[in-house]
Every structure is written in structure tokens, then in C-alpha cells.
Specification:
By secondary structure, the protein is α/β, with parallel strands linked by helices. It folds into two domains: about 20-300, ANL, N-terminal domain (Rossmann fold), CATH 3.40.50.12780; about 320-425, Non-ribosomal Peptide Synthetase Peptidyl Carrier Protein, Chain A (Orthogonal Bundle), CATH 1.10.1200. The chain is built from 14 helices and 14 strands. It has helices spanning about 20-30, 45-60, 75-90, 150-165, 180-195, 210-220, 230-235, 240-245, 265-275, 295-300, 330-345, 360-375, 385, 390-400; strands spanning about 1-5, 10-15, 35, 40-45, 70, 90-95, 105-110, 135-140, 145-150, 170-175, 195-200, 225, 255, 275-280. Helix 3 (about 75-90) links the parallel strand 5 and strand 6 (about 90-95). It starts with a strand and ends in a 29-residue tail after the last helix.
């Protein structure tokens, strides 16, 4: 770690490149398991060996400075190899979802990780320290990266968050967040920076608190991330289940959560489950604490999105509390909010927030429709979110008969709802 000097004045601390820090940690615990999924695992020695060969292959392709490499790799050993290999080549990476279009200067898939033909030779020289060098782009809906992170911002934030979470060799991070979502990449980097084991469950368990707890037990997880909705569901756990959690030793483990849980709710959940809840990069901490320096929440928060407004119309305003729809099933409202938060990667959504003001567009409208339909168990027309743009209005519309307009024409908005955005809202 060095000091960046300008005119004999210290302006900022310059950390070694993220790739160098990851390599140092790997060499400290070479025989520890770095990442595992099903029957496949890599030790830190094996991971560094594979990543170095991938870096050599990528450097031979003479990628330009600041090149962006799209990774279409399954979570687990392949993804960890891809991330470390791209960083070793001095490039930046973005993780593509399974249905995302190709993006970046080149795209790597699992076939590109067949590296037997690449000589290992001597370790490659590390990329020089450069606080402005891009490290990764966190992909938004549709595979379009919405946030680009550079060394000078991301590396100190990751190190501070690792220390705040007390992550260390011997810990196991349960990797539940999809890799192409905002916090998925952070989980991988935090785990590898700490010399911990990254455990990727074979089957997704994003909604069911009981399944998540069972997976935590099976994987001997010490750190995991549970959504606010799942944590609230945990308040309904039986006394027997709560006893099981104590017996399993969860009082000594850490659960990441989102900063939107208010202190009273957080205290209730901690008392009920014995989970020590650690907000993700809670920037409200006092400056004296290490965690206050992380800035991770700020880095991972995309800029606010305002949908275009047609000429002659004022901006769409979310309904206020006085406009709340009477008689709406609160359970359905919570289900809608949960789906919107998952798809939009936006925490703290309320019943009166406007879908498009939260960053929604025509593509995510399809995704949230599918998510709500799966959760409620019946088909829902896609155009519903355009006509009922708050969770309360949307839930109320779900309780009434509706139809999908097959002609391609959006039906006229009902009284009290806002005007749907134009096609230009897709981004």
C-alpha cells in the first residue's frame, strides 16, 4: 500500500491492484478450498494456476487498455477463474446473465476455460497500480452494464467491508446472489480477498427461508445474504425452528442484509433467530468505524432513472398515502414489492413508489410480470404494470378481472392511474 502524492501533499491512499491483493491472499492459504459447487472445487493454488493461464491467453490477444470482457460462465469454479484471469490480464469484466445478449470487447464462456494448451511458464507481471483503471461493470437489466467500478473506488471499499464482516480463512460464504446481479460479484471478490471458501449451492433458493437455512447448515456457512423479505418471513418461525438455529450455532454467524431494515425490525429478527445481522455497507455508521469507509452501497447504487415525459404532460407522480387503494390484500402488495425489488435490484420499495421512477423500463416490466406470476401462481398481462405503476395499484388490479391486449395497443389508463410511458422508456 502506498501514498499518492500531488505537490508534496497526500491526496489519497493508493492500494495495490485488486489482482495483486487476490494473488497474495491465495498464496497465504494455497491448500484451502477457494470455491466449491456440487462435486467440483478448486483450492487457492489451483484457482491461481488456472487464472494465470487464462491471463496469459488474454494478454496474447492484445486487449486494449480498459477493455471489457463479458463473462458468460456458471457460478462457481469457472466464474472465479474468469474473474481472476481477466483482472490478471489488466482488463475489466462484466458478468452476463444466461439470457443477456453478448456485451463487451470479447465474451468468454466455459469452452474458453479449457486451458490445457496454454503454457503456464513463470507468473505474469502484475498490472501496474492505476486508481482509474476499470475493474468491472455491474450489469443492469438486459445485460447493459449500469455501473463501472474503478480500482481506486472498489478496492478500498472491498477491503473495509471484508474487515467489517470479519471475513477470514476458515469462513464459508454461501453464494446465494445470482452472479450477474449487483451484489453477486461483490460476494465473490469479498470471499477471495479474505481467503474464505465460496460455496455455491446447486439449486437456487432465493425465496424460501427454510430452504436457505437448510443450505446454510449443509454448507457450514458462516456468512450469507438473505433478502429483507426472507428475514421478515423468519419472524414467523416456530420455537422449534428457532431452537434448531441456536443449536446449529447460527449465533456465531453473520447474515448480510440490506440497509433498509429499520433498527426495531432488525432487533426483532436478531432476537428471534439469533442471526447477527450486518447491513451491507451501511454508510450511516460513525466515521470512527472501519465499515464507514466502505462506500460500497454508494458504489453499487445506480444513478436515479427518470422516464421520459411526453410534451405537455407533467412528470408522473407516485400516489400518496391518501390515494391508497382501499381493501388491497397486504400479502399481495408485499409479494409485488418483493418481486420489484428483486428485478430492479432496488431496496426499500414502498407501496406507493412508481415502477418507472425506480428505474423500470419495458424489459424489466416483462421480468417483473413473470416474477409476480410465478409467485402468485397465475398468468398476468404484461401491460398491467404500465397502467398500474405502484405496488398498491398493481395489487388492486390483480384482484379485478383483466385481459391482455393482444393487438399491441395499450388499453386506456383507468381513473387514478398515471399515463404509461412511451416506447422510449426502454433502455
Amino acid at each position: 500500500m502506498g501514498l499518492h502524492m500531488t505537490s508534496a501533499r497526500v491526496t489519497s491512499v493508493v492500494f495495490p491492484p485488486l489482482y495483486v491483493l487476490l494473488g497474495r491472499r491465495a498464496r497465504l492459504v494455497p491448500d484451502a478450498v477457494a470455491v466449491t459447487r456440487a462435486d467440483t472445487s478448486l483450492t487457492y493454488r489451483e484457482l491461481l494456476y488456472r487464472a494465470t493461464r487464462l491471463s496469459r491467453l488474454l494478454r496474447a490477444r492484445d486487449l486494449s487498455s480498459g477493455a471489457l470482457v463479458g463473462l458468460r460462465l456458471p457460478p462457481g469454479p469457472d466464474a472465479a477463474t474468469g474473474i481472476l484471469g481477466v483482472l490478471g490480464a489488466g482488463a475489466a469484466f462484466t458478468v452476463l446473465g444466461p439470457d443477456d445478449p453478448p456485451y463487451g470487447d470479447m465474451v468468454l464462456d466455459s469452452a474458453d476455460l479449457a486451458l490445457d494448451h496454454v503454457p503456464f511458464q513463470v507468473p505474469l507481471p502484475a498490472p501496474p497500480a492505476d486508481p482509474e483503471r476499470p475493474v468491472c461493470a455491474v450489469a443492469g437489466p438486459g445485460g447493459r452494464p449500469s455501473i463501472r467500478l474503478v480500482e481506486g473506488d472498489l478496492t478500498p471499499a472491498l477491503l473495509a467491508e471484508r474487515d467489517a464482516l470479519d471475513l477470514a480463512p476458515g469462513d464459508t460464504v454461501l453464494h446465494r446472489t445470482p452472479l450477474h446481479e449487483t451484489f453477486g460479484v461483490v460476494e465473490v471478490l469479498l470471499s477471495l480477498l479474505s481467503g474464505s471458501r465460496l460455496a455455491v449451492p446447486d439449486l437456487p433458493d432465493h425465496d424460501d427461508i427454510a430452504t436457505a437455512l437448510d443450505t446454510m447448515t449443509q454448507q457450514h456457512a458462516t456468512h450469507t445474504r438473505l433478502s429483507a423479505a426472507m428475514l421478515l418471513d423468519s419472524l414467523a418461525l416456530s420455537s422449534i425452528t428457532a431452537f434448531h438455529l441456536l443449536r446449529a450455532g447460527f449465533s456465531h454467524k453473520v447474515v448480510w442484509t440490506t440497509p433498509d431494515l429499520d433498527p426495531v425490525t432488525r432487533a426483532r429478527i436478531e432476537a428471534r433467530t439469533r442471526f447477527p445481522l450486518r447491513p451491507i455497507a451501511d454508510n450511516t455508521a460513525e466515521p470512527s468505524g472501519t465499515a464507514a469507509a466502505t462506500g460500497l452501497a454508494r458504489l453499487l447504487t445506480p444513478p436515479p432513472f427518470a422516464p421520459p415525459v411526453e410534451e405537455g404532460q407533467g412528470p408522473a407522480k407516485p400516489a400518496g398515502p391518501s390515494q391508497a387503494h382501499a381493501g388491497v390484500d397486504a400479502t399481495v402488495v408485499r409479494a409485488v414489492i418483493h418481486c420489484w425489488e428483486e428485478v430492479l435490484e432496488h431496496t426499500g420499495v414502498t407501496a406507493h413508489d412508481d415502477f418507472f421512477a425506480l428505474g423500470g423500463n419495458s424489459l424489466t416490466a416483462v421480468l417483473v410480470t413473470d416474477a409476480v406470476a410465478r409467485r402468485l401462481g397465475h398468468d398476468i398481462p404484461v401491460d398491467l404494470v404500465f397502467r398500474h405503476r405502484t405496488p398498491a395499484a398493481y395489487a388492486a388490479a390483480l384482484a379485478t378481472p383483466h385481459r391482455t391486449d393482444r393487438t399491441g395497443t395499450t388499453p386506456a389508463p383507468t381513473q387514478g392511474d398515471t399515463v404509461p410511458p412511451t416506447e422510449g422508456d426502454a433502455s
